[in-house]
């Protein structure tokens, strides 16, 4: 069999495997607990203790059944609106700093961080992400630890979790939805949203269950896992960023530290710098998708009394 025929056969096998996944998915979907979402057009489904919108639930199950993590992979994990954008920017800048040593032409100046690093449960199911297509070892996810594909948990790859004060995460989520959701959408009241958030009934909720799952896992696998605190990074970013570089296998050399490379990356990835870029003020996130969003939805400017910048 020539290489082209073999490749086509592999593609057909993969397609059949995905089709079987979708068929079995449809069969059990009706049995899952279901809840109205904060945005009425999207229902939530409870799966393995976590609430998901339908599209992401499909992605979670597909990843669980088909995704094979590599030993060199680095997974950036978080709850929604807990510093994901910032963490992606920092990790991307670290891993690619040899290639993009000239920060004046760095990709982050013209590309939103979420476009630089794939989202496991979104991109795997859309086939933008396969085990062979990722040019970088970086991937992100909001999936709780216990629901990650087994190859991630047992495969020895690196895992980074960023935690944020849930009060700030809640307010940030409201700001995000107000910017990212179509203007004609019907919103629930603030009181209703807060009650549902506290009960854990929102996309990727509940909050504390996810945090505890990663915290406990980190205590058992400290050599390959890092637990970051958003508020600590904002207060003093250099120590946390240095720890991040160490744990993901891209430590800064003494020469780099003396040349201020660490400080330059922190400056490049700062909220103030990223939020002021044209691409993040005027650009669109996945404009070809069924639910495109303005990039500025990821860069809210309101300040909170609790923890700081959203």
TrEMBL record:
Concerning InterPro entries, the annotation shows: P-loop_NTPase, Sulfotransferase_dom
User: Is Transferase among this UniProt entry's keywords?
Assistant: yes
Give the GO molecular function terms.
sulfotransferase activity
- Sorted alphabetically, which SUPFAM superfamilies does this protein's record hold? P-loop containing nucleoside triphosphate hydrolases
What keywords does the record list, in alphabetical order?
Transferase
EC number(s) stated in the UniProt entry for this protein: 2.8.2.-
- Per UniProt, residues of the Sulfotransferase domain are 72-297
Pfam families linked: Sulfotransfer_1
The similarity comment for this entry is: Belongs to the sulfotransferase 1 family.
Protein name, as recorded: Sulfotransferase
